[in-house]
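ok here's Long-chain-fatty-acid--[acyl-carrier-protein] ligase:
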Amino acid sequence: MLYLLLIFVALVIPLRYRVRVRGLDECIKKGRKGVLFLPNHPALIDPVIVNLALFWKFRPRSLVDIKQLRFGVLKYLEKTINMLPLPDIGISGKSGRDEVLKQINACVDSLKAGDNLLLYPAGRIYRGRYEKLRGNGGVARILEAYPEVRVVLVRTRGLWGSSFGRAKGYQNTFGEVLVSHIKHILLNGIFFGPRRDVSIEFVELPDDFPRQADKDEMNRYLEKFYNEDAPPNTYVPYVWWERGGSRVVPEPDAINVAVDTRSVPDEVRRKVYERLHEVTSKKILKETDTLGTDLGLDSLMVAELHGWLQEEFGFQVNNPETLRTVGSLLLAAIGESDGIEPLRPIPPEWFAKEDAGLLLCPRGNRITDVFLRNAAEAPNFVLLADQSKGVFTNRKIVLAIMALRPSIMAIPGDRVGILMPACAMANVVYLAALFAGKIPVLVNWTVGLRNMRYCLDNAGVKTIVTSSQVIDRLEGRGTDFTGVKEQFCYLEDIAKGIRLPHKLRCVLASHFCWRSLRRAAVPEIAAVLFTSGSESRPKAVPLTHTNILTNLTAAMAPLGLRRDDCVLGMLPPFHSFGLLMNFVMPACASLRVAYHTNPTEGDMLARLIAAYRATMMVGTPTFIANILRRANSEQARTVRLLITGAEKCPEAAFALFREKCPAAAFLEGYGITECSPVVAMNHPGAAKAGSIGKILACLEWRVLDREMKPVPAGGTGMLYVSGPSVFAGYMHYDGPSPFVDFEGKTWYRTGDLVSADEEGFIFFKGRLKRFVKIGGEMVSLPAIEEVLLEKYRSEDVPLPLAVEALGTEEQPLVTLFTVLAIDREQANTALREAGLSPIHNIRQVVSLTAIPVLGSGKTDYQSLKKLTENGG
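and the structure:
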């Protein structure tokens, strides 16, 4: 089988590439065992060409990115050609470091045993005309362990500009490019297509190579060899009738985003610089210093920094590759990340014609019914988009639902977990679960392992639909799935199990017959979400179709949304506001949404706004302010509506909105998961600064004092609401009821203090529940406190500690007040052992002789804050 495949590849390669090999005969004369081949890496196709040249005489083993083995054609050949899988540090982060070191040791053992090894020193394909090894240390580690190994350098020329590379500024998958080349070969009559000239040169390692030097000196030597007379970006036509012939084209634009670190607190800055001094031994550091080229950190060392940032500051870094400079480390330490990936072109069909017609509110009783009606009216309307999957029309969504539905129906039980970030496939999976008769339970992975397990058990979830790529990336960011991973059902495995006949039936049905979806037994509950756990454990909130659709209709009515509007979807579906605005609203109101999985990547999101011409941003003030800080006026030009919630908008953020989007309407609102979730919003043309707007028309409301008496206008009291968008009660909950009865009806007690003026505008005054917003997530202070009290409370010291948030609203410092000798490391170790995520970490410890208490015996948190304010 292998030999037949190699013969086939050997016959196909010359149809596009005119390959010349030099120096291989001299290598063969010196022996064919125990050789370490070190090639440059201009494109995804060069491993195929180099392996083809070497296979018959050397049969080398290759270190291969695990993504290629898992998702590419190589998955069928891994065992046959004895490849060595290598984790992508950019995804796996610190968790992949040990595996990388293990594989390097395996490489050394393989070479000593006489195997030949193909290893790419750069670890990634070219980003520009020249090979850059940065601080990578794979070669140095192998030579340190096996100094006498025979080394052959391999220099490939002619592939910079290939569609298998990144010369156009972005990278298509190997499969996508392969399919396009097959089409071109057929169009050219197989044998008559233009050829790209490619040369491969094999050179025995010169005597002047610095074998005993450090990795930086080795890398500079290799770069000089690879980049000698490097050819420019060369375009070669794909069909013989294309005019212009082969030609040099401009190099791709480098993405160099200016880093603004003014918002980084001095204490955070000091800790980051101390760590860098320790790691690099360099005394002088600049924010513009690159971690690889300037500081000499390889990918493993950057992965260690990545893990340290998460443990020290609690914010998850989406991708270690975004940690490029000292400045980017500083931003990551306060929960902001850079997105450095070039954007793939947006398909022309995405851009809707200008249409000022009003977007219609949902009409129907179930989310699935409303979606099908909209899809039937405009099956070719492009609704969803992201950089990973491109664009989805209504028909393509229906096709994907039909393909997935049988697999989800086969999952035991009536509930299925969904663990996915904001992306087009998350929307598809959510709808497919409903059409499969399953209740979608949206899993929040940011709450930590302890709370995640509790949520899944409480909701009765046995199976969680997710993606292996999502899990790899989350584990790389430090998320622990111990004891949960066994419940995962990966979309990649589902896709593998879908047979061709079923695919063909779904294609036909998506065009001609949607009867199976219209007749689906859709559950009454449309989603199960979880609270932030302000009373130490999250509570499961079941929301019906009526709850959500009523809320959506009432929230949309005053917004005046247009048919050509487009929202930037960055909030994940486990956020109630994210589920409503970025998932249900597109499906039920035909509002186009362009997704991005990480709401902290401000510069990437700013570029996406411009690329997709987004007109709406929905999120927390922290997330939106981070985007606009990175955006220039041109990038934000299309934005006409900013909707924020979940936290009070700081004055600095409001000033930034006015500066970057002067023509946009800024609408602050307020919501609660239990209310589906929007409770109050400002409206375009009817907004009041500092308020959270007016209560939605679908809700009745009261502001009452402790004696359940109405509070006069301007007075502060508890907010109570009642209406069809309010949930019916928590699942499997035996605590005190959140409902009260008065005036002959049932009201939901929000737990939030507000005041209302004469015009009905609501002003948020504070929460009785104790939690803070960190990195866009609600962090429960009682949850942290409970874990520490369980560990440190004793008969001798019944109240040894308390947890409160100091600092500012934008940069809260979770502070441990204690009468015991507990340091930060001990406290955070206890939190990690209890399964809380790094975002719950203690930031500082304050020692006291006694914890202040109220007359009731409860902790006096106000006094704790005053102690620090007064320096006591």
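+1. The chain has five domains: 2-248, 266-332, 353-598, 694-767, 771-869.
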